[in-house]
């Protein structure tokens, strides 16, 4: 009786749902960033619940969100080349949320700010982290296959 050959481990890959989520993150961030960039006063007045003119930082935030949106789309299309954008995105979500709270909100919390915090930062931390872990695994596997 013949012994069956040992099962070979299937190569790891970036799953289609991960690419889809990165495309969704890209589209979301492009849209939200464009809104913040082109309508900083509306965004600032909504988030702070005041009628004060926005600081110039708000327009830069919009530009940064737009840039990350485009970068997430690049990662979805070319995950092996632009994998490093994902940890930068995770870092920007975490640091951006903390900085926005202290610099823009002046340590005050409004309901629109909480909505913005959850939808723009916290919601994305978990899936981006899962995708980044998979990207590390894929990179390690490809490195070991190349070295063998």
What's the SSE blueprint?
Elements: H1 16-38, H2 40-48, H3 57-77, H4 85-104, H5 111-147
Structure description:
The protein has 148 residues and is mainly alpha-helical. The protein contains five helices and no strands. It has helices at 16-38, 40-48, 57-77, 85-104, 111-147. Helix 1 (16-38) packs antiparallel against helix 3 (57-77).
Beta-strand content bin? under 5%
Shape: elongated
- What count of helical segments does DSSP give? 5
Q: Indicate the radius of gyration in whole angstroms.
A: 20 Å
Structural class estimated from helices and strands: mainly alpha
Q: Give the number of DSSP strands.
A: 0
Poorly predicted runs of 5 or more residues: none
The secondary-structure element order is: HHHHH
Keywords summarizing the entry:
148 residues
Give a brief outline of the structure:
The protein is mainly α and 148 residues long. 74% of the residues lie in helices and 0% in strands. The chain has one domain.
């Amino acid at each position: 009786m013949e012994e069956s050959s040992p099962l070979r481990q299937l190569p790891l890959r970036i799953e289609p749902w991960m690419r889809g989520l990165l495309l969704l993150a890209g589209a979301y961030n492009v849209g939200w960033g464009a809104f913040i960039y082109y309508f900083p006063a509306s965004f600032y007045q909504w988030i702070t619940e005041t009628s004060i003119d926005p600081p110039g930082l708000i327009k830069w935030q919009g530009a940064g969100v737009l840039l990350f949106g485009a970068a997430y789309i690049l990662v979805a299309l070319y995950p092996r080349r632009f994998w490093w954008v994902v940890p930068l995105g995770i870092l920007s979500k975490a640091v951006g949320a903390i900085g926005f709270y202290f610099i823009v909100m002046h340590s005050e919390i409004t309901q629109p700010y909480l909505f913005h915090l959850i939808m723009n930062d916290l919601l994305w931390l978990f899936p981006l982290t899962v995708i980044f872990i998979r990207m590390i695994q894929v990179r390690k596997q490809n490195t070991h296959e190349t070295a063998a």
